[in-house]
Design a protein that fits this description.
Vanadium-containing Chloroperoxidase, domain 2; about 50% helix; about 450 residues; 15 helices; mainly alpha; 2 domains; two-stranded parallel sheet; two-stranded antiparallel ribbon
Length: about 450
């Protein structure tokens, strides 16, 4: 994607004069160079002066409304659409990166300077986020309106403010138009007919568990999610390869015995550390990765453009991780440990000793088992973070406010992040090891693809 800046002849002449004199302006207007007008330097100089404050304010507001309050795929989709809209708004103020929905190839940023960039960018981000969030999650409209009014009231009325508002409205409208063909993500009645060992079965639904969750009996969530148009990859089956282990295999027996011993309520073989890891990472990856991205943005003091791009790429990887893993779940249709262990004496394998009363530590989600979505999304998010920062080693502190308030885990690398997140699913009884290993691996492939093929830095031309 190329960006063309429209510059008047008078303005161009001024640039030539300034270039010859080797002079510049302190307010951040374009500077002349010995090689002519440097668009890249102009963009970077102005953009670096814009802080991450407004981007993070809106990001936090969205989180207060949706984190752990709605089905996980829906949460991930809202996050992706909101953060991409923020990113598009900023990059229609000054084009720095490719956009997702609102084209920026003909944006004229010649009037943007360090003096007015905060006004126009704050207005654009705020209006864009308010509009898209209100459209996607109406219960959050009041809070979004309040934050919008607060931010806009602090910006002096000007042409820059008005232009920013217009850009924000356009960014939200473009996103809604681009995704207007999306089907809703809802619970459906489970219609699977398979009763053979290994087939996914809905026989672990709410009435079989203490504290039943709020979904219908005999239900499965968004079985067609794998058909949803992805955000940053090509198709839902792009990274699908090997399948689940045959029940007769030694590999399956090993996985079966591991989750049976470590994933049940009060399993004596599970260590305190494993118990903590299981509960710590149970949170939806979209909200967890979002919070980790915010931590790193503040830790590294990224500017607003960098912050918006990072969060948008992370959340793009999350919704695409859901789409890809759900495609695999439907394709392989493998049973969950709760079904497998309870039916262990009747699965045709004499080495899998069953336990009809076996219960995982948390309520198993109503979807097939393989591959692990949580591991898929964790691997994808970790890979995006690694590529963005150019290193796997990146110490930070992670928190889990919804399930282990006050507990912190010191993370030293993005590999550790992906691995702990994946293994947590064994310790809560959701997945077999093969599902988490394949999910994490495929997720990293997806994250690599998302990062290298979306929201890339623009190559600017005159």
């Amino acid at each position: 994607m190329k960006t063309v800046f429209k510059i008047s002849w008078a303005y161009a002449l001024l640039i030539v004069v300034w270039s010859c004199a080797n002079e510049g302006l302190e307010d951040g207007n374009p500077l002349g160079t010995s090689d002519g007008y440097s668009l890249k330097s102009y963009n970077n100089g102005i953009i670096k002066s814009y802080s991450n404050e407004t981007v993070l304010k809106w990001n936090e507001l969205v989180g207060t409304y949706i984190d752990e309050k709605i089905p996980q795929p829906l949460e991930a989709k809202i996050y992706a659409m909101v953060t991409l809209t923020m990113h598009d708004a900023l990059n229609n103020v000054v084009p720095k990166y490719e956009t997702y929905a609102l084209d920026n190839t003909l944006v004229d940023a010649s009037a943007i300077s360090k003096k007015n960039i905060h006004a126009i960018a704050d207005a654009a981000v705020s209006q864009a986020t308010r509009d898209i969030f209100a459209a996607l999650f109406p219960p959050g409209t009041s809070g979004a309106n309040s934050l919008l009014n607060t931010i806009l009231s602090q910006i002096e009325d000007s042409e820059s403010k008005s232009k920013g508002i217009d850009i924000g409205k356009a960014a939200a409208a473009a996103m809604l138009e681009k995704r207007q063909g999306d089907f809703p993500l809802v619970f459906s009645t489970f219609t699977g007919t398979g009763i053979a060992p290994g087939d996914y079965q809905a026989n672990f639904m709410p009435w079989m568990l203490p504290n039943p969750p709020i979904w219908p009996a005999n239900a499965v969530y968004a079985p067609n999610l794998g058909d949803l148009t992805p955000f940053g990859i090509n198709t839902g089956n792009q990274f699908r390869d090997e399948g689940s282990y045959p029940i007769s295999s030694q590999a399956y027996i090993d996985d079966y015995n591991e989750v049976k011993a470590l994933g049940c309520t009060n399993c004596p073989e599970r260590t305190p550390e494993q118990t903590e890891i299981g509960t710590f990472w149970i949170e939806n990856t979209a909200s967890m990765m979002n919070r980790i991205a915010r931590t790193l943005i503040q830790q590294d003091n990224l500017n607003g453009w960098e912050a918006a791009r990072l969060i948008a790429l992370v959340e793009m990887s999350q919704i695409d991780g859901f789409i890809a893993s759900f495609e695999g779940k439907r394709y392989f249709n493998f049973w969950r440990p709760i079904t497998a262990v309870r039916a262990g004496d009747n699965d045709g394998n004499p080495e899998t000793i069953g336990d009809p009363t076996w219960t995982p530590t948390h309520t198993t989600p109503p979807t097939p088992e393989y591959p692990s979505t949580h591991s898929y999304c964790g691997g994808a998010g970790a890979e995006v973070l690694k590529l963005f920062f150019g290193t796997d080693t990146k110490p930070f502190t992670a928190t889990s406010p919804y399930y282990l308030a006050g507990v912190e885990r010191n993370i030293t690398s993005f590999s550790q992040l992906a691995r702990e997140n994946a293994e947590s699913r064994i310790y809560i009884g959701y997945h077999f090891r093969h599902a988490i290993e394949v999910g994490e691996r495929q997720g990293k492939q997806l994250g690599n693809y998302v990062f290298k093929n979306n929201l890339r830095e623009l190559k600017k031309v005159l």
